[in-house]
UniProtKB/TrEMBL annotation:
Protein name: Uridine 5'-monophosphate synthase
Membership in a protein family: In the N-terminal section; belongs to the purine/pyrimidine phosphoribosyltransferase family.
Boundaries of the shown chain within the full protein: 235 to 498 of 501
EC number(s) reported in the record: 2.4.2.10, 4.1.1.23
Gene Ontology terms, MF aspect: orotate phosphoribosyltransferase activity; orotidine-5'-phosphate decarboxylase activity
Keyword Glycosyltransferase found: yes
Amino acid sequence: AGRTSLQEREALTTSPLNHKIISFMKKKSSNLCLAIDYTTTEQILQMVEKAGPFVVAIKVHSDIITDFSESFTQQLVQLANNLEFIIFDDRKFADTGNTTKLQLTGPFKIAEWADVVTTHAVQGVDSIVPVFREFINNPAYRLSGVLLIAQLSTKGSLTNIHEYTKKAVQIADENRDIVSGFITQTRISEFSDILNWTPGVNLDAKNDSTGQQWRGVEQAIEIQQNDIVIVGRGVTSSKEPIQQLKRYRQTAWESLTKEENEKI
Ligand code: UP6
């Protein structure tokens, strides 16, 4: 199934998180998420301040930050509220439901400051859905949706094994109140209200030395029909990160809106 227009999807989606994301997309003319894989809070916050206006989401890995603190997450939340982006912790949960709960509340208190987190599907629906639903439906937590990992970008990924992605999609399709999106390489759900976020994007390189596979923006958005581009080192390892960020933003937005403009 192809993509429908943002307007249509905004009307269709029941997820408050997706409503927020789509409104940011339209307001900022951006379908870009920046993956900031820096390891100190100072580096991250400096980048967030500069990048925030151009993106709809900032993705971090809380468990790689060497000086992680509550003051960091408070500052991040403040920046997200002011600059209007979603805070995304790419925790990739994959354990029993009970352990996932402990990880969401543990030392990093992820559910308190992240708008959205990633989860694998490998542990099965009963270890995912009720656990996240409890947090998402509780207003004491900021967490308001999950992204289900349906396909990984890495070479030889086992998500390519027959039926895996299909089963993951089924979990999402049947629980659209909490699963607001996929992490995927190519558009996979019939339901156009679920946003397809895609990592493995780089305009200047094809791979790193540890299994990452990159492709360009047009491939990811026009051919593979994803919605949101997740870019990391293409921006963060560059000498001129904000210049690069603007380049990715423009290319990704043009790719997404091309079809809509052609229809008009
Ligand atoms: N990521 C992938 N591929 C996946 C899922 N997640 O690359 O299938 C994450 C990585 C990293 C970011 O953990 O934070 O997206 C990609 O960054 P890069 O562009 O620098 O490789």
